[in-house]
Amino acid sequence: MHEMIRQDCLPGDSLTPKLLELVEESMLLEEPKDRKSARVLHEKFVKILGTFEQESGLSSSMLSPLPNEVDRSSTLNRSNEETLQPQSPGPAASKMGRFKDGLKRGVGQAAASIAALRNSPTTPELPPRRPVLAPIQGHGEPRSMSDPTPENAMNVPSPTISGPAFPHRHSLVVPGLGIRSPSATSSVASFESHLVPSLDNLYLSLAEAREWKMGKKAYDLTKARDSNKIISSLQAELVRREHIFLVETSIKMKAHAARVLEAFDTLAYIAKKDKNKVQLAFTSTLEEKIHGSTEISPLMKVLQECGYDQLGCFMEEKLTWLVDNILIERLVPETLPPSTSRRRPSDARPLQNHPISLIVFTDGRWGDDTDGAVGVQNAIQRLIDCVKQHNLPRTRIMIQFIQFGDDEIGKRHLKYLVDYAKSQNCDIVDTTSIDGNICSMMIGSINHKHGSEEVESPNNGLPRSFAESEGVVTNGDGLS
């Protein structure tokens, strides 16, 4: 139910997802002791509402309130002149009465709106009560490069509704909600400036994403507003994708253990918006266990306890097993590869037939192959064969290699894999450095604008706040 509500949120609605998150993280918990008290919930709600008003420029006065106490009192007095004085209702009855009154008003407004749409060839001009948003696109619809951005959103004309046809559910006009008039221009402009931007040419560092995460957990995004817009747009692209994180646990990767923790904590938090579990596996125990959870904390604990004690890497063997036993089975559920003879690890049961993102944390130092990638391309080829054999969309699977460290041999191996997939006319592989663009890490081969670090840092690789304080100059496009 919550996922359906999130999907129906209008662009720029940052309030509803936060309230849903509050309910999920503080109320809908299995253990009663983990549920927050009413006082804590009230404090968190006040923070969320305050942040929303600060970000959007809206205030609670723009919402449709129930009649105030004076209005209810006068209405009751007028009613009492014609009827006997009823017994004073208790608090519960009073609340139920207000609820029924509000429900009747909502039903009446909707009925009047539908009747007006069916009977009138043109849309009547009505005074606006809330800012107007353009109809949102369904998650399954492709996004156009010409979609309005915050800079030109006001130049897009409002759709004209005519004839008896029932309007699209996102375009339903309710009195006071769906008609734009000149008097509403200022409030609309202030709200539409917060619409989700296009991901093209946007850059977000790991440090900025971590700052955003801390602000979101504290219900205070005043220092991460730009990052919030980028990540909101990024999450819209990631919805309904499965995310599997594979961590190389060779001894040489132990030097990057702290960065691995930071990267997973941040990327998994961004990816967990979808209701599917975020999954975590290690090359040393891949065949035995794939950890899955809708919460990041249990996975972080497993990662912290991980021992980087694998003598060799054996990336070709491990990735081949993952392709044959997990990825192909999920991409094409009715097909089980003949090579599957070993027991699937727990928590690796197939989910719905969703697109998959495999994110591999590695340094790329699997050996020294001057003509290839130490056989890892063979595992990639098996996956490419599956995509072509079953005529799957290219974006159904993405493999993102995130390199830790700057070993030149590792870079050569990873670049070879990207070029190899392209040479097979199946661009499903991408690579980026852990110091690179978060957008490239999450949608590298899905969005060609972010393939193989095509989008450079607008601040010469520095966090945005530091670059601004040091006076780093960028050109008009925001690119250095």
UniProtKB/TrEMBL annotation:
Biased composition (Polar residues): 73-87
Domain of life: Eukaryota
Biased composition (Low complexity): 56-67
Region listing for Disordered, in residue ranges: 56-99, 115-164, 450-480
PANTHER family according to UniProt: SLR1338 PROTEIN, VWFA DOMAIN-CONTAINING PROTEIN
Protein name: Uncharacterized protein
Species annotation: Pleurostoma richardsiae
